[in-house]
Amino acid sequence: MKFNEIEYKKPFFKINNYLNEYLNEYSRSLEIPLQYEDLLNYSGLVPLENEKGDPTLWNRVLFHANDMDYLYAGLVEIYRLLISDGSKVDHLTVDGVDFCGYGNSKPFRIKILNQLNDNYDYYYIKIADASRVYGLELEHHFSPNKINYIYHKNTLVEEHIIGIPGDQFIEEVKSKKRVINEVRLAKEFVKFNEQCFVRLLGDMRSYNYVIVVTQDFDQIQYRVRAIDFDQQSFEKRCKIYLPQFYVDNVFYVEMVQRAIPMPTIEQYQKEEKSLLKKRYLNDKYQIDTLIDVMKKDVVSFPDYVENLKQELAKFHTSSKFLECKNMGELLKVNITTMLEL
């Protein structure tokens, strides 16, 4: 098995006028009191460690005393706009702001504390990137999970997706801290693999998705959820869009091979494509509108488009892909081909 490798760091693609109009039309664009750049005026960073005392990719942000009241008030207001109608709530406060310089979006993670019950929640502020916005919208329509986010100017605000990071989940199982139902988890990984390929979501290495664990009577249910959408319809190779080909996912792939036979795998793939088809037909107008916007956009390099259309044409044994001129057209043909629309 040849594993995937991402060759180059993906560049940012700006939100063009067509995508901006789409976001306005479907109430994704909303004026917010702070922009991403406002949070860059920090006075220092303090490295954060995990429970074992090992360094993480996150740093606690220190702001100048003169800026804190203004910034924290704005961050609370953004949270209210994200989760409700923006109505004033006096008992919410910012408990901390963290920054991660790794990856494309260089996110700020905002911790919001409810002072009445000490309950807390997170959300993220990132640089707006067209690839990520397309990924969020496609996730919202094609997955069973609804996505909540706000776009304004150069800033993207995203809610926190709850779950156990895929790489952390692997370590918990290997260290015997977590007992799993292999058949149920294997089924969900097969479905997740199919979801990503249908809508051409790449770079699903184990730290870019989470495992959601739910107790159901005397059984445990699982769901695999993507949390990183930067590589939506960007990469040139077909296998980049199949999580099964990443070395980080060997644990899950071997579990699938061990837990369920090939006829059952094929059954789960058909079931998932049937669900994806229903979701597409339910939201057909908006999904088609989104893809039409993507057709007018540039979210990859010309040679990437050329290579991917050749590989998809070979994979599906269909010449339709060879007629495509951009990633939006490739995405539409891939969806209609795989879902038999």
Summarize the helices and strands and which ones pair or pack.
Layout: H1 17-25, E1 42-49, E2 55-63, H2 65-83, E3 92-100, E4 108-114, E5 119-127, H3 130-142, E6 149-152, E7 155-159, E8 164-165, H4 166-174, H5 182-198, E9 209-216, E10 219-226, H6 250-259, H7 262-282, H8 284-295, H9 302-316, H10 327-338
Antiparallel strand pairs: 1-2, 2-3, 3-4, 4-5, 5-7, 6-7, 8-9, 9-10
Helix pairs in contact: 5-6, 5-7, 8-10, 9-10
Question: What distinguishing features does this structure have?
Answer:
20% strand; 3-stranded antiparallel β-sheet; single chain; 10 strands; 7-stranded antiparallel β-sheet; alpha+beta; 341 residues
Please tell me about this protein's structure.
The protein has 341 residues and is an alpha+beta fold. It has 2 domains: 26-129 and 147-159, no CATH class; 164-338. The protein has helices at residues 17-25, 65-83, 130-142, 166-174, 182-198, 250-259, 262-282, 284-295, 302-316, 327-338, and strands spanning 42-49, 55-63, 92-100, 108-114, 119-127, 149-152, 155-159, 164-165, 209-216, 219-226.
Segments where pLDDT lies below 50 for 5+ residues? Answer: none
Tell me the fraction of residues in β-strands, as a range: 15-25%
Terminal CA distance reads 31 Å
User: Largest sheet, if any?
Assistant: 7 strands, antiparallel
Order of helices and strands: HEEHEEEHEEEHHEEHHHHH
Q: What is the tally of helical segments?
A: 10
In short:
The protein is α+β, with helices and mostly antiparallel strands. The longest helix has 21 residues, at 262-282. It has helices at 17-25, 65-83, 130-142, 166-174, 182-198, 250-259, 262-282, 284-295, 302-316, 327-338, and strands spanning 42-49, 55-63, 92-100, 108-114, 119-127, 149-152, 155-159, 164-165, 209-216, 219-226.
